[in-house]
Amino acid sequence: TFSTDPRRMRPRVRLTGLRIEDADDHPPDGRIEGTVTCEFEDGPVAGDHLRLTHHRPTGPRVMFLHHPKPMPPAGRMVMRFSANPLEPRAKKNERLVPVFVDWVSRSGVVESDALAALVLLRER
Questions:
Q1: Contact assessment for residue 97 and residue 86, using Cβ atoms and an 8 Å cutoff
Q2: pTM of the model
Q3: Are the C-beta atoms of 68 and 79 separated by less than 8 Å?
Q4: Can you tell me whether residue 93 is helix, strand or coil?
């Protein structure tokens, strides 16, 4: 299924440079640690957040919302994030997991294009 989240026609936040630590050999129970470069046209407000998304092997979307404190000002900055571990994968062919990030306003509108990174989970 495809997301039906409301999105801006012209994104107001530009995301680049998504990096997830140990993405090529990630511990199965390890937190998702990384950085993304954010370029804000206007300074975000309380409630705006970075959203990390992946899907369970059965299909449903899992989201982690990162609310930076303090909120960054307008302009460009590298944001560090830490998210809960990925949902468990039981089969060998489920070890490669796409992780998506986007910036979402407090009203639930996606303010950026999405970025994605592949995470390869270490075999147990």
A1: yes
A2: 0.90
A3: yes
A4: helix
- The gap between the terminal CA atoms of the chain, to the nearest Å, is 29
Please check the confidence at residue 56 and state whether its pLDDT lies above 70: yes
Token output for 29 = 């129970």
Does pLDDT of 1 surpass 90? no
Q: Which amino acid is at 86?
A: L
Q: What are phi and psi of 58, to 5 degrees?
A: -85, -5
- Alpha carbons 119 and 31: distance in angstroms, whole number: 12
Average pLDDT over residues 81-103: 89
Residue 91 pLDDT exceeds 50: yes
